[in-house]
Amino acid sequence: xxxxxxxxxxxxxxxxxxxxxxxxxxxxxxxxxxxxxxxxxxxxxxxxxxxxxxxxxxxxxxxxxxxxxxxxxxxxxxxxxxxxxxxxxxxxxxxxxxxxxxxxxxxxxxxxxxxxxxxxxxxxxxxxxxxxxxxxxxxxxxxxxxxxxxxxxxxxxxxxxxxxxxxxxxxxxxxxxxxxxxxxxxxxxxxxxxxxxxxxxxxxxxxxxxxxxxxxxxxxxxxxxxxxxxxxx
Length: 233
Prior knowledge:
Helix content is 27%, strand content 26%. The N and C termini lie far apart (65 Å). With 233 residues, the chain is α+β, with helices and mostly antiparallel strands. A 5-stranded mixed β-sheet has the order 8-9-10-11-12. Strands 1-4-5-6 form a 4-stranded antiparallel β-sheet. The relative contact order is 0.12.
């Protein structure tokens, strides 16, 4: 069966809402605001909710009700392109990468609210729509009493990652590069780079935020534990 016939057959089965299973032999990296790990997809399914990919050893970074699958929702703007790409990857046994953003905006919004309520001034464009498309780069830049804080929000069990160029997320080089891409004035960027603290915010499903100070290399500074020690508040 060639690629064109396979794709057309999949489309027909999906729109008739018939449950269709394909045994896959490819690997995929799936992430929730950061990477999870590579795992072999056991099978996929087309049904009325979207395109489901199943693997037995994936963690559940978004704390979803189904822990062994990720889903590309059928109402996603890029749905047709995405599942067609996955089918082509299947036929050619290629690796694909995915990104799950279901709780990413929630984490950033909770962090924003928490720090604003504590008197911090956000210098970034705040997210107000939980369904808004996630944008790459720095999650939050805050100012208080002449000090600056660059904050990365991670929901559930997702963590900081290392990029393909071996740059550690939230390391000084990573922050410098992403800060230059913001709309802040050059003078403000210079002030931030001269006096900022990198912070990791971990958010639970119930909205509890825990903060951790990061070292210049992007790893947690375990010697700093309290909110006051991190923010000087």
